[in-house]
Write a structure and sequence with these properties.
The protein is an alpha/beta fold and about 260 residues long. The N and C termini lie far apart (about 45 Å). The radius of gyration is 17 Å and the shape is globular. It has a six-stranded mixed beta sheet with strand order 1-2-3-5-7-10, sandwiched between helices. Strands 4-6-8-9 form a four-stranded mixed beta sheet. Helix 3 packs parallel to helix 4, helix 3 packs antiparallel against helix 9 and helix 4 packs across helix 5. It contains ten helices and ten strands. The longest helix is centred in the C-terminal third of the chain and has 32 residues.
């Protein structure tokens, strides 16, 4: 299969999925989410998976705010469910998933990285759950997965203030596992993926499933609750104002 905004490449057991909307900083519209979901399904026989973004500026800059701005609650719920299907698929993918964070990873982009097994950031990467300034909350798993990596207090600060952290700080707080020079990211992650692909596949899958099970009993309920909260904010003044202000490139005037 081929898609206009997602590329899937294979090399000796390693699948690489690239979000290819560099003109939009790889922001996720419905078409791209659908394509990514299909690419993940097609790559399920891979022994390791790399997820990254096209261009030099962004991993995934977030969800498509122009699309979201006028959604109803029901439409927002459907969009949240689509985003959750993708992040859930990343988290439960049979093989290890490496997020190669090559630039901006905001909102949904940060949530994609959170759902991966391993996160490697280029020095120019900037990450954040920035939804609060749009009048909403993280809606693709961020409220549930972020605190696992950075702890409760830090997660609340990132979400409440919409903080953006550079790669060095992201490494310091545990949001990413390592930071490499911008020009070395692709080769470094390719080497990691090749090493993983050489491991015994069944044992590696069992290890991943067991590690994921640590959080499973509470995650499902939390994710359901997050979807309901996120979609329920659509139609509020602050959601409309936050997204309209973003699209119009001005400061929002919240209630």
């Amino acid at each position: 299969m081929t898609w206009e905004t997602v590329d899937l490449d294979r090399n000796e057991g390693v699948a690489t999925i690239t979000i290819d909307r560099p003109d939009a900083l790889n922001a996720m519209n419905v078409e791209t989410l659908d394509a990514l979901s299909e690419a993940l399904d097609e790559a399920r026989d891979a022994r390791a998976l790399v997820l990254t973004g096209a261009g030099d500026d962004a991993f995934v800059a977030g969800a498509d705010i122009g699309y979201m701005a006028e959604l109803s609650v029901a439409e927002a719920q459907a969009y949240a469910e689509l985003g959750h299907r993708v992040t859930d698929t990343i988290e439960t993918f049979p093989a290890p998933v490496i997020a190669a964070i090559n630039g901006y990873a905001f909102g949904g982009g940060c949530e994609f990285a959170l759902a991966a097994d391993l996160r490697v950031a280029a020095e120019n990467a900037v990450l954040g759950q920035t939804e609060i300034d749009l009048g909403i909350v993280p809606g693709w798993g961020g409220t549930q997965r972020l605190s696992r990596l950075v702890g409760d207090e830090r997660a609340r600060r990132l979400v409440f203030f919409g903080e953006r952290v550079d790669a060095a700080e992201a490494r310091e707080i545990g949001l990413v596992g390592e930071v490499v020079a911008d020009g070395d990211l692709d080769d470094h992650v390719a080497d990691m993926a090749a090493d993983l692909a050489a491991k015994p596949a069944h044992a590696l899958q069992a290890a991943k499933e067991s590690l994921n099970q640590v959080h499973e009993s509470h995650l499902s309920a939390g994710l359901t609750y997050e979807r309901r909260l996120w979609s329920g904010l659509f139609g509020t003044h602050d959601q409309r104002e936050g997204m309209t202000a973003f699209v119009e490139d001005r400061e929002p005037d919240f209630e």
